């Protein structure tokens, strides 16, 4: 198995966590977003979307991190990332999607670059934009966790799964932009428990060989 | 089953298509986004995220349309929205996520309102923003479809599934903002085939009782 990622890409970090939780070995390839290596002809041949990450398994290249997380869970079922019943699965997926469909798409590097390049956002404007969507999304995450009645040691019950895998990298990004996170105590308690696990701790951005 | 949606919400349209494909009966509730009804205390009790759509099944309320689509497919398997094998499933989910994680989150009403309210984007600026992300996302969708070798009459093979369900509402929105779509012939051929099916045609925004 091969993973193409970038240390600071939170979608890449999701996959590093997932592969560690499943205990799967893989070869790492480092694709620099600031250098634009994700738009090189070679990378586009592998991933026509020109986005990170890409996972190669059995000679097939897969894009879109949520799709890859589901692929890993279906192909390597232990430990599972989702509960057994459709209702529980929907709740976990919905939490993951608050991060993957409501926060991260608005705050990733290509959006921030577009705001600053085309729309002349200053650094302060960019940070204000970033913090707006973190506050909006984390409020939704916290409210959904609180209402579910299923949050235990982790987002759903007592084992880390799809929602935790998406949450933790988003917290890292939020902290990088100095976003206040005190208003989300249930969410942050889950985050802290995740970080006590090796699969989340050892895969964090700063420990990656391409980190600077 | 009950569906809370809004005629012009493309995530709501995804669910109308899905329920029609599965042949499931449901009661409709209309929640006006322009009137802010999605932020009313009653709606927030049902969906703490304050987003559309919400599906209620067996007394449980579900949010996030992609999670709901998977829930419907797991709970009501025929006809399936995903292929049988993990590799095919990953490809279909990745296409759906180009729409749900790369295009729609940047162009939905709450983002456009934030751009115009807080950042004083003019109507022309807003439309330029909108068209930028449509062009970016549809180029990714077209390139991925072309590279997959699996596109047939629909996004993957000869039956409509998760990717088609996400694609069609996004085309409707793109047309509403007069986005040129000539550069995406494979994508648009799939769109046209979808629209020849009753499940896609009869559920379109303009036929909804809350349309204006």
How would you sum up this structure, described in words?
Chains A, B: Keywords: Isomerase. Chains A, B: Residues 85-212 form the GST C-terminal domain. Chains A, B: This is Maleylacetoacetate isomerase. Chains A, B: Belongs to the GST superfamily. Zeta family. Chains A, B: InterPro entries: Glutathione-S-Trfase_C-like (IPR010987), Glutathione-S-Trfase_C_sf (IPR036282), Glutathione_S-Trfase (IPR040079), Glutathione_S-Trfase_N (IPR004045), GST_Zeta (IPR005955), GST_Zeta_C (IPR034330), GST_Zeta_N (IPR034333), Thioredoxin-like_sf (IPR036249). The structure is a homodimer of 212-residue chains. The first copy, chain A, has 212 residues and is of the alpha+beta class. Chain A has two domains: 2-79, 3-Layer(aba) Sandwich (Glutaredoxin); 86-199, Glutathione S-transferase Yfyf (Class Pi), Chain A, domain 2 (Up-down Bundle), CATH 1.20.1050. In chain A, 55% of the residues lie in helices and 8% in strands. Chain A contains nine helices and four strands, in the order E-H-E-H-E-E-H-H-H-H-H-H-H. Chain A has a four-stranded mixed beta sheet with strand order 2-1-3-4, covered by helices on one side. In chain A, helix 1 links the parallel strand 1 (2-5) and strand 2 (27-30). In chain A, helix 4 (86-107) runs parallel beside helix 7 (162-176). The first copy, chain A, is globular.
Keywords, separated by commas or semicolons:
Glutathione S-transferase Yfyf (Class Pi), Chain A, domain 2; 212 residues; 9 helices; homodimer; 8% strand; maleylacetoacetate isomerase activity (chains A, B); globular; alpha+beta; Glutaredoxin
